[in-house]
Design goal:
heterodimer, A: alpha/beta, Fumarate Reductase Iron-sulfur Protein, Chain B, domain 2, Rossmann fold, B: Uridine Diphospho-n-acetylenolpyruvylglucosamine Reductase, domain 2, Uridine Diphospho-n-acetylenolpyruvylglucosamine Reductase, domain 3, Alpha-Beta Plaits, 4 domains, 8-stranded antiparallel beta sheet, 15 helices
């Protein structure tokens, strides 16, 4: 990431004329049914959506507000989902600016932010788990996976350590598609959360390690199942001046295999209504909208339904931008709200393409005692492999 | 400074602790609205009630403790209407939701927190609309727009927002909750007529800027959603001919749903800024160009209106430009394009919304252009028909928010413009802060307003100073 020019950042923040369109705009023609998930699921003061966040940011940067953890809460109680950017009529990117503000103001104490960064530095993951666990799941797939090769599956911390079904499913699908792939011996964290929360220096050092590990593996192509890893590797690393091979989300690979029916899939026994939650880092950030949908629809006997908000205007699951660590209860509440949207369209499964979204949506479903199944697309596909 | 803790506790008891904030960061964000070049004022507390009963409790407490109250909903007002008072509280009304449709009465009631976007989505499902769309429809609430006496796309045919109102639920400064219009009768089946039970008490609160109480519910008319539209532009070589065209459109009952008039320079500016983004083709405009969307619920009526509009234009010596993209974008993109046009240039801006007669509308253009020349500001003004025989003009002056001298200059220029506009016969929608020094020779009117204010709000807690300085 290039050095942040403070004058330019302030000039950008001043592009906000406080119109407030980023709060709860309902704009049917463009698919907006609300904008900010935090505003919607919190007591709803101005500090809970982007207009207020920008005012707080400017006040902190200009010394009008004292730099205290409490005064900087508005900067961190945001998922950086980018729905505000999607609707903003002004000439700047509010979500990107807020991320930069976090970096510029990272001298303001924030225990949660610092603890995550420290864990990543110490353990190579934010979950304080042994780094070798990221290959532990391989025992269950029934075939060998090398540690080097032209195609590298970068598993990510959440799938690799918390949701092993995702990595197992991904591995089985790649195998079924005749794609030979490797998984790193000791995969570092991509450092997405460091970047999102303003720990830029630490993220830069971490990124160098990630790139070095990928290079050593001989990879010419990197496949990810995590939307956060995708954005970080594909978009942020080049901004940090790092060269990285082509990075693809697995749904982008599967889009091709689905189109040419390369994978033979068993139909579901009874017609199943499935909806899809767009992970913000895959959709708004990287523009991947059609691939996941086409992959889901390639499963015979699936009835695909969209939620009230989808694609560019989809409401966030609440996990991103460091919010799940910063305010877990709020993150869960937002997830529950998203799960409710799936219920409203009668979905039996809410599919997604990001383990971080998946795990938060599950927590949200639990919170409202929902029996809906939350699943990664790769799980749905792997279950139907012949 | 944050409010006294004991008083804050009383407010917490009224609405719940999580909906009262005295945090410095929260207070800061309520010190301003979308009004630009206005000095922010930090309130002492922000309170977010859920219903009229809670609003009532808040106002009773505010009265007891003599605390100034600033009602606020979308926070999108542009002329300093919702800037708090020192030591005052802000009552944020966005939690007051709810939409009730009375299909047979052709009306709908909305809570003070309901935005135009939300209502439009709801009404569209029933084939209906509230046909006045302020520029800030995605942000502002219907109640807020009633309180500021707004207008917007659709006003050319249906008039200002106030014309749509059938009744209001209002919490008076002493906490009394009243209902106006037909719903004042507790046995009424719903909102069906505004002019009931004597004088038009509803009208007292329209454009009152929250000075007489807090509107908690609004009942408005609904109309069948139009399906048939004719989009066209009409060019005239003189201002007079263009203005005559506007008058004849009205005199012939042509359903100009949105009828705007642009001077050549302003059209050039808009085309430069927006033509590529919105897909406007280049076209040869005139000294004054009228952009009109005619709307009808039946196709035969539309054809008749469109034909007559063309005939009037040609009879007056104008040219039918046969350019549909711009009026079409004005109507179909009514939720978005006006907001975009206000921000695409990157400047901050300040505006002085007002009405003129069609034959006076060029005076507003001349006044703003003179001020732009004098102060060397960029800016623009254009206008649209806003009712029976009025034009809504919106002169914007652009400035750089990081240049404090320029910001001061824009305020000074606005004071001069407001005075000149008033003398030209213009009327502001509301007696907002920006206009208070421009009003002259209306002493009796202002005294009467003060008298009403004193009677309703003897402790002057409700948005003091905002309504014409009262």
């Amino acid at each position: 990431m290039a050095e942040i020019d403070l004058d330019e950042l302030i000039e950008n923040l001043l592009q906000c004329r406080r119109c407030g369109i980023c709060r709860n705009a309902v704009y049917e023609e463009r698919g907006f049914d609300g904008v900010c998930p935090v505003w919607k699921n919190s007591p709803g003061f101005e500090t809970s959506f982007m207009r207020g966040r920008i005012q707080v940011a400017l006040a902190l940067l200009e010394g009008v507000l004292e730099k205290t953890p409490e005064n900087s809460e508005a900067l961190f109680s945001c998922t950086l989902c980018g729905n505000c950017t999607e609707i903003c009529a002004a000439e700047f990117n509010p979500a990107d600016c807020l991320e930069e503000v976090r970096a510029v103001l990272n001298d303001i104490p924030n225990d949660v932010r610092d603890a995550i960064a420290e864990k990543i530095i110490q353990f190579d993951n934010p979950y304080e788990k042994n780094r070798s666990l990221k290959r532990e799941w391989i025992k269950e797939v029934g075939f060998e996976i090398p540690t080097s090769g032209e195609v590298l599956y970068f598993t990510g911390c959440t799938a690799g350590m918390k949701l092993p079904t995702v990595v197992i499913s991904a591995a089985r699908i790649l195998k079924a598609a005749n794609i030979e792939f490797a998984v790193l011996e000791e995969e570092p964290c991509c450092g997405s959360v460091m970047l999102r929360t303003g720990k830029t220096d630490e993220a830069r050092l971490n990124a160098q390690r990630v790139v070095s590990a990928i290079q050593k593996s001989g990879a010419k192509k990197v496949i990810v199942t995590c939307a956060g890893c995708l954005k970080t590797l594909r978009e942020d690393f080049p901004k940090l001046g790092l060269e990285i091979p082509e990075v693809l989300h697995i749904t982008e690979i599967l889009q091709e295999t689905a189109a040419c029916k390369k994978l033979k899939l068993k139909p579901v026994t009874k017609r199943l209504k499935v909806t899809y939650h767009d992970p913000c880092h895959l959709s708004r950030a990287m523009g991947v909208y059609d691939a996941p949908r086409e992959v889901i629809m390639s499963i015979p006997n699936i009835e695909f339904v969209e939620m009230e908000t989808s694609r560019e205007t989809a409401m966030c699951c609440g996990a991103g931008g460091g919010l799940r660590s910063y305010d877990p209860e709020l993150a869960k509440k937002i997830a529950a709200d998203r799960v409710m949207s799936a219920h409203e369209v009668g979905a039996e499964i809410i599919a997604t393409a990001c383990p971080f979204c998946e795990s938060n949506l599950r927590l949200g479903a639990e919170q409202i005692n929902s029996s809906i199944r939350v699943a990664d697309i790769v799980d749905l596909i792997a279950e139907r492999l012949m | 400074m944050a409010i006294d803790k004991k008083i804050a506790k009383e407010f917490e008891n009224a609405v719940g602790a999580e909906y009262v904030s005295t945090r410095p960061d929260v207070l800061l964000t309520y010190s301003q609205t979308a009004s630009m070049a206005v000095e922010p004022v930090i309130p002492s507390a922000v309170i977010r009630p859920a219903n009229a009963k809670e609003v009532s409790q808040i106002l009773k407490l505010a009265n007891k403790h003599r605390i100034p109250v600033t009602p606020r909903s979308g926070g999108s007002s542009l002329q300093g209407e919702a800037i708090p008072k020192p030591g005052g509280i802000v009552v944020d009304l966005l939690r007051l939701g709810g939409i009730t449709l009375y299909e047979n009465l052709r009306s709908v009631t909305v809570g003070a927190g309901v935005t135009y976007g939300e209502l439009d989505k709801f009404l569209a499902k029933h084939g209906l609309f509230l046909p006045v769309y302020p520029e800030s429809s995605l942000v502002c609430t219907v109640a807020g727009n009633v309180a500021v006496n707004g207008a917007g796309v659709g006003s050319s045919l249906y008039g200002c927002t106030g014309e749509m109102v059938l009744g209001l639920e209002v919490v008076l400064p002493d906490g009394t909750i009243i209902q106006t219009g037909s719903e004042a009768n507790p046995n009424s089946p719903g909102p069906f007529i505004r002019y009931a039970f004597g004088p038009d008490l509803t009208g007292l609160f329209i454009g009152s800027l929250g000075s007489f109480g807090i509107i908690t519910k609004v009942s408005v008319k609904t109309f069948k959603r139009m399906k048939y539209f004719d989009y066209n532009m009409y060019g005239f070589d003189t201002v007079e001919l263009a203005e005559q065209f506007l008058i004849e459109i009205k005199q012939n009952d042509i359903n100009g749903l949105f009828t705007s008039i642009y001077s050549g320079e302003v059209l050039d500016l808009f085309m430069d800024m927006l033509s590529e983004e919105l897909g406007f083709p280049p076209f040869e405009h005139a000294e004054r160009t009228v952009s009109m969307t005619i709307g009808r619920v039946r196709e035969d009526m539309l054809e008749s209106d469109a034909k007559l509009a063309r005939e009037i234009c040609e009879r007056l010596g104008g040219r039918v430009l046969n350019v549909r993209e711009m009026p079409q974008q004005e109507w179909e993109g009514r939720f978005w394009n006006f907001v975009r046009a206000s921000y695409i240039h990157g400047w901050h801006w300040r505006t002085l919304y007002h009405h003129q007669t069609p034959t006076n509308s060029h005076k507003s253009v001349d006044i703003i252009m003179d001020a732009m020349d004098k102060y060397r500001f960029l800016g623009h003004t254009a206008g649209f028909q806003s009712g029976h025989s009025s034009m809504n003009l919106y002169p914007h002056l652009y400035f750089d928010p990081q240049d404090k001298d320029e910001e001061e200059k824009v305020v000074k220029a606005h004071q001069e413009i407001a005075k000149a506009l008033f003398k030209s016969g213009a009327v502001p929608f509301k007696l907002a802060e920006f206009w208070k020094d421009a009003i002259e020779d209306m002493d009796e009117y202002m005294d009467f307003l003060k008298h009403i204010k004193n009677s309703i709000d003897p402790n002057n807690i409700m948005n003091p100073g905002v309504l014409g300085g009262i």
